[in-house]
TrEMBL record:
GO MF term list: hydrolase activity
Record protein name field: Alpha/beta hydrolase fold-3 domain-containing protein
Domain Alpha/beta hydrolase fold-3: start-end pairs: 95-318
InterPro entries per the UniProt record, alphabetical: AB_hydrolase_3, AB_hydrolase_fold, Carboxylest/Gibb_receptor
Pfam annotation, one family: Abhydrolase_3
PANTHER family the UniProt entry points to: ALPHA_BETA HYDROLASE FOLD-3 DOMAIN-CONTAINING PROTEIN, ARYLACETAMIDE DEACETYLASE
Length: 344
């Protein structure tokens, strides 16, 4: 019997911090995959099944269908609607998928949306916001907030929902979108009951040339973490900022004005009067400490906050609920928070 060393072994600096169940899962499905240059089109085609080796079965809602809503400047964007078996009108949870602004679609968090729909007994609407670099950042935030505005204004008739009972959620970049949309909703007098996110992107790492320059210890401690490391974060960041027009042009200046404080959510102008917020972080995620710093800003602003760190797992752990107890608990606890808050 012949063998070889893993082509993508877990870095020894991170290995002691990881749950043995994840280590086994990674070694069986990822460690022997050859390294290849990143091709955006190929990565997009595979992104929504990237962690399917660890994804468990999900309960089926009564009905699932796709439709469109107006995005930024009225351009139509796709949404997927998950309806529970109970009679409407239902409370609604709006999901924004992850993918670093340039990846992801309506299949990315489909299994999570199914769980939340059935377990929380709510309508779930998953938003397929437009991606960089084809569209300039912050298109994901702009599309998502436009979708929220439309759902709030017309959802009672269009989606058979109770627009007074809305929650937002998402993972990674989608978590960032949900948190920023909570600020925008407050300023637009759109009532939200809850925001529940996992492993959110918060800081603007374009400011740092190396992981060591980040003020967050998790960037250094987890620089070489599996599934999401410093190098991959910089790749996503280059993709995001590369979506803007060339330096020195009037178009870029206009685009930068649209970015506002969105590039670093810690710089939001006010943290007062926001909806109850649940933030889950992962112990072996470079983004861990910035997510927890954002939770502290919410507390300082006088908001109700639940913050929990799932130890031993990396950034996208919630997609591996077949094997990881942390992922099962993330889904069940998120569903419970939505159910308790939206159903009172």
């Amino acid at each position: 019997m012949t063998g070889h060393e893993a082509l993508n072994p877990i870095h020894p600096a991170v290995l002691p911090h990881l749950d043995p169940v994840f280590i086994q899962l990674y070694n069986e499905h990822v460690a022997n995959t050859p390294n290849k240059p990143i091709d955006l089109s190929i990565l997009r085609s595979k992104y929504s099944v990237l962690y399917s080796y660890g994804t468990g079965p999900a309960p089926e809602p009564a009905r699932i269908y796709d439709t469109t809503v107006p995005g930024h400047q009225g351009d139509p964007i796709a949404v997927r609607v998950y309806e529970p078996a109970s009679p409407g009108p239902w409370p609604v949870h709006i999901d924004f998928h992850g993918g670093g602004w340039g990846l992801g679609d309506l299949d990315t968090e489909a299994h999570i949306c199914k769980h939340l729909c059935v377990k929380a007994n709510v309508c779930v609407i998953d938003v397929d916001y437009r991606l960089v670099p084809e569209h300039a950042f912050p298109i994901g935030i702009q599309d998502s907030f436009a979708a929220l505005q439309h759902i709030h204004a017309t959802g009672a008739g269009k989606f058979n929902i109770d627009a007074s009972r809305i929650s937002l959620g998402g993972v990674s970049a989608g978590g960032n979108i949900a948190l920023i949309c909570a600020h925008l909703a407050r300023d637009a007098s759109i009532p939200l009951k809850l925001v529940a996110v996992g492993t959110p992107v918060i800081d603007d790492i374009a400011r740092y040339a190396t992981a060591g320059e980040s003020p967050f210890a998790s960037m250094q401690e987890m620089e070489h973490a599996p599934t999401l490391n410093w190098a991959r974060l910089k790749w996503f960041d280059t993709l995001k900022w590369g979506s803007l027009a060339a330096e020195g042009t009037e178009e870029r200046e206009r685009q930068i004005r649209e970015v506002k404080w969105y590039a670093n959510a810690l710089q939001a102008p006010s943290f007062e009067g926001l909806a109850k917020t649940v933030i889950y972080t992962a112990g072996c995620d470079p983004l861990r400490d910035e997510g927890e710093a954002y939770a502290r800003k919410l507390v300082e602003g006088g908001n109700e906050v639940v913050q929990m760190r799932f130890r031993g797992v990396p950034h996208p752990f919630m997609h591996m609920d077949k094997d990881l107890w942390q992922a099962k608990e993330f889904i069940d606890m998120t569903a419970q928070h939505i159910k308790n808050t939206l159903h009172g």
